[in-house]
Amino acid sequence: MQLNPFATHSLLFTTLLQPSLAQTPSNFAFSTTNPLIVQFNTTTVSPQGELLPEAAVALPPTLGTTAVLPGTYLAVMVDPGAGTATEVFEVLHYLLPGLTSPDAPATRNGTAFYPLTTAAQPLAPYLVPAPTPGDAHSYTLTLWKQPEGFAVPGAFLRYLPLNASDPTNRYPFNLTGLVAAAGLGQPLAAGYFDVQNTTASATTTAGHTTTSGGASSTTSSSGHSTSEGSSTATGKTVAATSSAALIGAEGCVSVWSVGCFAWALLALAGVAARM
């Protein structure tokens, strides 16, 4: 039977509806009661807002819904609470297009759901959550119906690349502006998780830490890190890029002098972001 996408959207809302249970943080720009299932390897985010260790979120997540969805979808991940002591702004962490739903559900980590997959590369590669020591940040993923012929509006193209030496182009992001410019409407589902850095000191050292799956990550004192390698958790390859521009308590340590200089300027200006 051919499903009507509008009827299916209604089915999604009624099937996934959890009265009074918002699937986004209370201060987030958008709200929906439809949960987006978020899985990191063997970890399923439950409940929404679950506190996860940094190591658990080193690779892009698998996303899914509890109802089959016809058509194509777009996922966006942001940190809405990054910034400095005097300025708070959004950071773009992930933008993944071309997501489709399977005809049959799968069961992973004891959860039955419809995992969303894509053959497309991320428009904005995954920026690994890594808040500064002591901070707990909420990272929010939203799912949108992807318009026919979708293209990122020109004003937002600068946010997409993940420069290996300086990913600061990812902020200050404006999800509300992107949604309006691209005509995305309202999110169909959403999910979020928290990450807290329990490290006692903000001092960092240069280098890469190898993680499972052949991926490596580097964290900067600005509160972000990026992973190097690929994730096949959804059955599709999801590219991610690494960053090695670091600022330690004793100054700038970097294998890229240009990235080091850029971070030094930001640190002096007092605007190094917490992501």
Structural category: mainly beta
Query: What percent of residues adopt helix (DSSP H or I)?
Result: 10-25%
Quick one: overall form?
Answer: globular
Strand order of the largest sheet: 2-1-4-8-7
- The number of distinct β-strands equals 17
Please tell me how large the radius of gyration is. Answer: 18 Å
**Distinct helical segment count:** 3
Distance between the terminal alpha carbons, to the nearest Å? 45 Å
Order of helices and strands: HEEEEEEEEEEHEEEEEEEH
Overall average residue pLDDT: 75
| Beta-strand residue fraction | 25-35%
User: How is the main sheet built?
Assistant: 5 strands, antiparallel
Q: Which residues form runs of ≥5 with pLDDT under 50?
A: 1-20, 202-223, 226-273
InterPro entries: PEBP-like_sf (IPR036610), PEBP_euk (IPR035810)
Organism: Letharia lupina
Keywords: Signal
Protein name: PEBP-like protein
Which helices and strands, and how do they pair?
Layout: H1 5-16, E1 37-40, E2 43-44, E3 50-52, E4 62-65, E5 73-83, E6 88-99, E7 106-108, E8 111-116, E9 127-129, E10 136-145, H2 175-182, E11 189-196, E12 209-210, E13 216-220, E14 224-231, E15 238-240, E16 245-248, E17 251-254, H3 257-269
Parallel strand pairs: 3-11
Antiparallel strand pairs: 1-2, 1-4, 4-8, 5-6, 5-10, 7-8, 9-14, 10-11, 12-13, 13-14, 14-15, 16-17
